[in-house]
Design goal:
Blueprint (H helix, E strand, L loop, with lengths): L10 H11 L6 E5 L5 H6 L5 E6 L2 H14 L4 E5 L2 H5 L7 E4 L5 H11 L3 E6 L2 H14 L2 E7 L2 E6 L2 E6 L3 E7 L1
Parallel strand pairs: 1-2, 1-4, 2-3, 4-5
Antiparallel strand pairs: 5-9, 6-9, 7-8
Amino acid sequence: MMPPTAGSTPDEVLWIAIRKLDLTPEDILADIGCGSGKVSIAVSPLVREVFAIDRRPEAIAYAREQARAAGTHNITYLEGEAPDVLMDRPAPDRAFIGGSRNLPAVIEALAAAGTGRMVVSCVRIETLGAAVAAMRRLGIFRESLLVQVAHSRDLAGGTMFSPANPVYLVIGGR
């Protein structure tokens, strides 16, 4: 099975996001725009339950397959738009938002449900602006981070760095 078309969260960004989420073993985390399932799998040992949410059936199928291979057992897969599928579930304590579709509505729904902390991962500056604006309007904006990573590679008998695309993290919550 092929991974979904959207890019996967880089490891370094993932670890910063996990730290900013301030997870506890009793938390329920919503992974919104779960894509490949990488975030869900990474946080599953750290929380009670994960809701992996994506509107694309192929993403849900791929994420489920990856989680099965990783041996995780506390991930619930929900196909659809985040505000809709979360309505009939316990409110998540934490949320990682990797998708930008209907972002203000997603942030508003999470805030209204009492989600304590959320991290939005943005690769587009328009998404960054929308996330900050929505969180400021709701009075839950905490901070934004620009994460720039470069990995070494060989070049002509030496070493150089190849930069990855920058990722913005927007942190909000009570």
